Structure formats: structure tokens, C-alpha cells
Automatic annotation (TrEMBL):
It comes from the Bacteria. The keyword Flavoprotein applies. Keywords: Flavoprotein, Oxidoreductase. Transmembrane segments: none annotated. It comes from Chitinophaga dinghuensis. InterPro entries: Bdr (IPR023856), FAD/NAD-bd_sf (IPR036188), Ferredoxin-NADP_redctase_2 (IPR050097). Pfam families: Pyr_redox_3 (PF13738). This is Thioredoxin reductase (NADPH). One of its GO terms (molecular function) is oxidoreductase activity.
């Protein structure tokens, strides 16, 4: 396309949608490019996931999120963000992955698998859900191992090992247990994570205490085999029969994409991207970051609730330049 947009937004999640709403209301020409379906990360959440936050804290663009229950679940969130997108006729192109961003000094060329786009400003709101943190152990590539958990019914009556101790791991353990799975948890720390949802934490702790769900604390998964798993415990290696491994080890942003774009990352393990917290502009002129991608490996810093304001900051700054 020959005409340059005022802004191209990479990522069609809640924060990308918030940026699009603000750009539309500011009278800017814009386009959202999303490599998957709308709110792709939320779509890939577990089927029965309930948000920690209330619905009003997940709203974007001051558009009410009406929910019967105190806290919305995944289907309700998908419906809300879809209706926000369609009823406001946001300019979104789905299943179009951005491969590269190049500058000619005056504007940026955005390369996707379907073509080229030009923009004076770029907002990267790509989240961190696409690249799992790997265990780097033998057998991790076996088909029985997954870093994404979707539906507990799949694991009914099977011997399931869950790696992790935070919300995703606890939800997977409890839901598969209640579908008849024989569940074992492998936890690095001495206890269930402190960030686990307050209405779920007593449930998992009681199931472990009564022995319904087995748990190895201060332990790590050492190896996965076709019909068993090896756990490194304080007492030594323990081998247990196993059919499936659900490794809830967390995720990370696409750092290689950020670096290829020219965005500087911190030298430490956190890999914080460089940006101005007042304007959200990175070290690359007219390229901005929005949402959880701002946190680098610190993925528990930014959420929908506290990063919605990024859209306001960015569009206000772009308006001063257009």
C-alpha cells in the first residue's frame, strides 16, 4: 500500500484494541495487524479461566464491560473485546503476522506475509504469551508435553504431571483432578505461589494436604520419557508413571523481534526494553511499546488493568506530532 498510516498497531489484544480506539477518536489513520485471531492470547487461555480482576478494570475506551458474576471468565472477555472491535468498526487485519519493521528516516515500512504497509508511527503491543519458557530437559519435545493448557476433559483418567505453582499450574492441577486425572505437581519453591488467586489457594493446599493431589516441593522435572517422568527431589531422583506433562513455566515476549526492530534491551536477565514511561516511546523514534511487552521477563508487572493507560499516553504524544 502506498499511503502511509499515521499509526500502525502490532497486536490485536486488549491493549492493541485500546490503542486503536484512541487513534480512531483522535482522527488518526490507523491499522491493527494481528498474527492470530482477535485477542489471540485470551483465546488460548484455558476454557474455564476466571480473571483475577473485576470487569470494570478490564474495560478499554471507557466502554462498559457488563458481567453478571463478580469476576468475568474467558468467554465473557472474548465476547466483550469482539463487540468493542466490531461495534466501533476498528480497522483490524487478522492472521497477518508482522515479519519486519524498516525505517527510511521519515516513516516505517512494515513487512507482513501478505504485503507492505507504511506508517509514520508504530505501536508494538504484542504481549508475551507466544513463546514459552522451556525446561531444557531430555524428553521435553515429546508430544505428551505441552506448555499450554486448554481443556481438562482431555486428561480424564490419565496420569498428569503439572510443573509450576502459580495460577496457570494450580488451575490445571485442580481442573484435571476434578475430571478424574491422577495429578502430581512439581514445584521449585517450598509452597504454592503467593500470587495464586485467593479463592483458589485454599482449595489446592487442601487437596495436597489430603493427598488427592501429590506434590513434590523444592523439586524440578529432570526428564520426560514415553510412559514415565523423572523428578529431582531433595531425597534424590524419583521416577513416576506418567501419560502427560503440563509445563506451566511461564512465557516471554518476542525479544528477537524487538532487537531486530532496533529496540534496546537491558543487559540483565530481565531484558527490559528501553522506553520513555511518560510517552512510551522507545529508543527508536516514533516506535512505541504498550501493554505487558514493556515488562521484559518481568511478566507480572503489567496487566490489562494497569497498562490501559499506555494507549492514552501514546496517542496523546502522537497527536502532538501529526
Amino acid at each position: 500500500m502506498d499511503a502511509a498510516y499515521d499509526v500502525i498497531i502490532i497486536g490485536g489484544g486488549p491493549i492493541g484494541i485500546a490503542c486503536a480506539l484512541n487513534a480512531q477518536r483522535a482522527g488518526l489513520s490507523y491499522l491493527v495487524l494481528e498474527k492470530g485471531c482477535l485477542t489471540n492470547s485470551l483465546y488460548n487461555y484455558p476454557l474455564y479461566m476466571t480473571f483475577f480482576s473485576t470487569s470494570e478494570r478490564l474495560e478499554v475506551g471507557n466502554i462498559p464491560f457488563v458481567c453478571i458474576n463478580p469476576k468475568p471468565n474467558r468467554p465473557e472477555a472474548l465476547e466483550y473485546y469482539r463487540r468493542v472491535t466490531t461495534s466501533n468498526h476498528l480497522n483490524v487485519r487478522l492472521f497477518e503476522e508482522v515479519k519486519e519493521i524498516k525505517s527510511n528516516g521519515k516513516e516505517y515500512t512494515i513487512h507482513t506475509q501478505d504485503g507492505l504497509y507504511h506508517a509514520r508511527h508504530v505501536i508494538i503491543a504484542t504481549g508475551f504469551y507466544d513463546i514459552p519458557n522451556m525446561l531444557n530437559i531430555p524428553g521435553e519435545q515429546l508430544p505428551k508435553v505441552t506448555h499450554y493448557y486448554k481443556d481438562p476433559h482431555f486428561y480424564a483418567t490419565r496420569r498428569v504431571l503439572v510443573v509450576g505453582a502459580n495460577n496457570s499450574a494450580v488451575d490445571a492441577a485442580l481442573e484435571t483432578y476434578r475430571r478424574g486425572a491422577d495429578v502430581t505437581m512439581v514445584i521449585r519453591e517450598e509452597s504454592i505461589g503467593k500470587r495464586v488467586k485467593y479463592w483458589v489457594k485454599p482449595d489446592i493446599e487442601n487437596r495436597i494436604k489430603e493427598g488427592s493431589i501429590k506434590a513434590y516441593f523444592h523439586s524440578s522435572l529432570a526428564e520426560v520419557r514415553e510412559k514415565e517422568a523423572v523428578i529431582n527431589t531433595p531425597e534424590g531422583l524419583v521416577t513416576i508413571p506418567n501419560d502427560f506433562v503440563i509445563a506451566m513455566t511461564g512465557y516471554q515476549p518476542n525479544f528477537s523481534f524487538l532487537e531486530k526492530t532496533g529496540i534496546a534491551l537491558s543487559d540483565d536477565a530481565k531484558k527490559y526494553p528501553a522506553y520513555n514511561p511518560i510517552t512510551m516511546e522507545t529508543n527508536m523514534p516514533r516506535i512505541y511499546l504498550a501493554g505487558v511487552v514493556c515488562g521484559g521477563m518481568d511478566t507480572h508487572v503489567w496487566f490489562i488493568e494497569n497498562s490501559r493507560e499506555h494507549a492514552d499516553k501514546i496517542i496523546q504524544h502522537i497527536k502532538t506530532r501529526v
